[in-house]
Each structure stands twice: as structure tokens, then as C-alpha cells.
Design a protein that fits this description.
Layout: E1 2-6, E2 9-13, E3 25-27, H1 35-47, E4 54-56, H2 63-74, H3 77-80, E5 86-88, H4 96-106, E6 114-116, H5 126-137, E7 143-145, H6 153-160, E8 171-173, H7 184-191, E9 200-202, H8 209-223, E10 229-231, H9 253-296, H10 325-328, H11 339-343, H12 356-364, H13 372-382, E11 426-428, E12 434-436, H14 453-464
Parallel strand pairs: 3-4, 4-5, 5-6, 6-7, 7-8, 8-9, 9-10
Antiparallel strand pairs: 1-2, 11-12
Helix pairs in contact: 1-2, 2-4, 4-5, 5-6, 7-8, 8-9, 9-13
Length: 479
């Protein structure tokens, strides 16, 4: 045991401290967990804790039996109370029976965000692929990894991708899944469909070869604006070209390698384009919301008695107002009512006297990158009083976490015996005003070890109005 002196007091350090977040993590990597007995050990550990947010069980031998035992409990009412955000079952010898058990747990799960299933023994059976895809569609999973399952093959993607419509899925890892050039049409069709909202796709270690990769890159260039990262290492390009790799009139290996260089350059340009457009869309969406609040939000008549109190929470974790996110964003997509304008008094600002169609047309010049559908969703949100933030006071814990290295974190400094302020979002200065708890816009200083609450709310809003990627409009239909 070590001791040190701080301001005249002797402080003793005992056993290593465990952070509050780590106490909700179960990490049993290579712990010898086997079949049903291993799953019961994990469940025993879970039942001894109030909260479990991460379940890391890599390099064990749970198999199908252990997986069914584990997810049978997690799918029950008692298991659903554990809000698990990440599950890792890499290298556990899990087969299709275990994948079906996982699918039952993933179905309609709103807390699980990351699922890692590396190096198991899944086989590409059509029925299993269909059940798994439908389960993902009803979940809020963001990251899925099926890497190193080389028995899945093209048969799995042939049934999986045509049904996949997971609105929250942002990353899929299909590295070393036994894919060939025959999987390229299924991948291309998914990447060019509105069902695809991926930001990252990993296809390392598959025999797609230059013709398969070329078709994917061509599809991304033409009709995909969401993908930001794509990995294609060791996809059969280092091997000698086959006859199927050559197009008509191509007989030189130098021409073959030149084609691959062109494909690689085309991919880099497409991903850079998507990244630039994503930044512009999000920036213009936030700016358009500010102007929509000022110009389109109509105050209620003073003599009209409100039927219900309209309040909304400051965040999902804040308990100041019990209201769901679905209620908060219920007005998105509804037609703009013109009848409400006639009952309002004559506006003094000339812009307010214009017809609604002209007002929206003028506002469209502030966001030229956004599609018409994106602009309608934003102005509908901004013009609705139901989406205004609440005026009720929130608990201090809902604010940003102050940076311990900042000068305003302590009162009077060490010489005055100050040990720091309690949690809060703003600090008062002597001359009036306030100082933000975030350093350079980041919580916990430049390390950004905690995601800023405001940034998280902005991301949530951008996803709700579907302004996280560029939308290509059809010139004829305007859709």
C-alpha cells in the first residue's frame, strides 16, 4: 500500500480502482467457458450485477448449446432488463443454431449497438440468412462483424443482402467469408439501393478479383453517397489474372494491372466525394434549422388555450420529462398546414406574407446541397412547436463533464485548498458571464474522452431527419 501527502492530509491508495463504467463490463476472454456450463457461469456473473453494458466472451468454446443457453436468458423478460450495448463472441465454435438464438435476441432490440461474431462456424443456409436479416431490420444495431466465417460463401449473401433493410446499420465486416466474383451483383445491388446506409464495408480476404471489385466501385460511383470507408485487401488481385479477368481485346498483364490502378483511383475519389458531401449536408441542415425556427415557427394566439403542454426532453438520458423520441419527432414528414396561417395576425415581416411555397423556395437557396425531401423534413421540424426544447430545469449531471485541466475547474487553486467544483455545465466568472465546461468544444479536454452531449444530440437529430448523407434527386420526378 502506498501513501502520499496532499494539503497536510495523508492519502492511502489501496487496491487498484475500477471505473464505474468498467463495473458493468463482463470480459471473459479465453476463460475456458465451455458449452452450457460456461454459459451458466456468465449468467451467474450477470445476475450478481445491477447493470451489464458489454459482454466480451471471445476465444471460448460456448458452441451452439452454450449460445442457446446464454441468449435464451437474454431474450427473456429478466434478461431484457440488462441494456447491453456490445456483444463479442469471437472464436466460440458457434454454428447456425447459435446464430438463430442470437437472431431472436437481436430482433426488436433497441439497446444493442455492436455485435462481433468473428471466426465461428456459420454455414450459408438460406433459412438462417433470412431470419438473421429480418432480425437486423427491426433492431438498432450499428456495427456487425461476420469476419473469418469462410463457410458462409456466396449463398449466404444471396439470401441475406436482398432482405437487409436495417436503418441504423453503419458498418459490416465480411472479410474472409468465402466470397467470390459471384457475390459482386448482390453487393452492388445492395450498395445502390436506398436500403443501404453503410459508412464502412470490409471485404478483405475474399476472391472478388478485379472484375468483381470493379463492378462494386462502379456502383458506388454512380449511386452510393453514404459509404465513407471500404477495405479490399487481399481480394485475389496479387495472383495471376485468369481468363475471366480480361475484357474483350485485353491480352496483356500490364493492361490488367492498369485496370486495377484505375479502379483503385476511382474508389478513392468516390469515397472522398461522399465524405465531402456528408460534411456539407450536415452543415447546411443545421443552418437551415436555425432559419426555419426564426422564419416559419408561428406563435400561438394569446387568447387560445393550449390543449396540452408541449415539452420535450433535453436528451434521452435526462429524466426531466418522460417522453419518447418517437413523440419528439412525430411531426417530421407531415404536410405543412396552411389553415393555421389565416387565423394568425397580420405579420410585420414581409417574408411572412409570401405564400408558403415561395418561403420554402427562398429557404432552399440556403441549402443547395440538400434534396427537396431533406429540406421538407427540416422545415417541418423547425416550424412545429412540438419540437421546441423544454424550459424545465434539468439535473446538472445532464451537462458536459468539465475538463479537470482547465483553470476554472478548481476554486482558488491548491493554495486555497480548493479541490474542485461539483458537476455542472457552466462556471461563473467574477465579471459576470460564464465559462463553458468544454475545452475547445470537447468534453474532458483535448483528449475528448467523453462524447459531448450537444454533439450526440446533433447526430441524433441529423439521423432523425435523414440528413447524414447526400441524396441524389431524379431530375424528372424531383424525388
Amino acid at each position: 500500500m502506498q501513501s502520499f501527502v496532499l494539503n497536510g492530509f495523508i492519502q492511502r491508495s489501496g487496491a487498484p480502482k475500477v471505473s464505474l463504467a468498467a463495473r458493468s463490463h463482463i470480459e471473459s476472454i479465453d476463460a475456458g467457458l465451455t458449452s452450457v456450463n460456461g454459459a451458466q457461469e456468465v449468467l451467474k456473473d450477470m445476475l450478481s450485477r445491477r447493470s451489464v453494458t458489454k459482454l466480451i466472451l471471445g476465444s471460448n468454446s460456448l458452441g451452439d448449446e452454450g449460445c442457446e443457453e446464454l441468449f435464451g436468458f437474454l431474450s427473456s423478460d429478466a434478461g431484457r432488463k440488462y441494456k447491453i450495448g456490445e456483444i463479442s463472441l469471437n472464436r466460440n465454435g458457434i454454428g447456425n443454431r447459435g446464430l438463430l438464438a442470437i437472431s431472436r435476441y437481436v430482433q426488436e432490440n433497441i439497446t444493442l449497438r455492436e455485435l462481433f461474431l468473428h471466426n465461428n462456424v456459420f454455414v450459408g443456409e438460406p433459412n438462417v440468412a433470412i431470419v438473421f436479416a429480418l432480425a437486423l431490420n427491426s433492431s438498432r444495431l450499428e456495427t456487425l462483424s461476420l469476419a473469418n466465417n469462410d463457410l458462409l460463401t456466396d449463398a449466404f449473401l444471396a439470401q441475406f443482402l436482398p432482405l437487409l433493410d436495417a436503418p441504423y446499420l453503419r458498418e459490416i465486416n465480411l472479410s474472409v467469408c468465402g466470397l467470390s466474383q459471384a457475390a459482386a451483383p448482390y453487393l452492388s445491388e445492395y450498395l445502390t439501393s436506398p436500403r443501404c446506409r453503410l459508412h464502412a464495408l470490409k471485404l478483405n480476404g475474399n476472391q472478388l478479383r478485379v472484375r468483381g471489385v470493379g463492378s462494386l466501385v462502379h456502383a458506388i460511383r454512380l449511386a452510393n453517397y453514404t459509404l465513407l470507408r471500404m477495405e479490399l485487401y487481399t481480394t485475389g488481385l496479387s495472383k495471376e489474372p485468369e481468363d475471366s479477368d480480361f475484357s474483350a481485346g485485353e491480352e496483356s498483364v500490364d493492361v490488367f494491372h492498369g485496370r486495377w490502378q484505375d479502379v483503385e483511383t476511382d474508389l478513392k475519389r468516390s469515397l472522398a466525394r461522399n465524405s465531402t458531401l456528408k460534411y456539407m449536408v450536415e452543415k447546411e441542415a443545421l443552418a437551415l434549422l436555425r432559419y426555419s425556427r426564426l422564419l416559419l415557427l408561428r406563435p400561438k394566439a394569446r387568447d387560445a388555450a393550449p390543449s396540452t403542454a408541449i415539452v420535450s426532453p433535453c436528451s434521452e438520458s435526462c429524466s426531466c420529462v418522460q417522453i419518447s423520441a418517437n413523440t419528439l419527432f412525430s411531426s417530421i414528414g407531415e404536410p405543412y398546414s396552411l389553415s393555421t396561417l389565416s387565423s394568425s395576425p397580420e405579420p410585420h415581416f414581409p417574408f411572412m406574407r409570401l405564400p408558403t411555397e415561395l418561403q420554402l423556395h427562398v429557404l432552399s437557396f440556403l441549402s443547395p446541397t440538400l434534396s427537396a425531401a431533406q429540406r421538407i423534413r427540416i422545415v417541418t421540424y423547425g416550424s412545429s412547436p412540438t419540437t421546441l426544447p423544454t424550459l424545465l430545469p434539468c439535473l446538472p449531471g445532464a451537462g458536459c463533464i468539465p475538463d479537470p485541466a482547465s483553470p476554472q475547474f478548481t476554486v482558488g487553486g491548491p493554495a486555497a485548498g480548493g479541490f474542485g467544483l461539483s458537476s455542472g455545465m457552466m462556471f461563473r466568472k467574477r465579471g459576470g458571464g460564464s465559462v463553458s465546461a468544454c475545452a475547445n468544444g470537447k468534453c474532458m479536454g483535448a483528449g475528448n474522452s467523453v462524447v459531448c452531449r450537444k454533439e450526440a444530440e446533433r447526430s441524433q437529430w441529423l439521423a432523425a431527419v435523414r440528413c447524414t448523407a447526400f441524396e441524389l434527386e431524379d431530375e424528372e420526378t424531383g424525388k
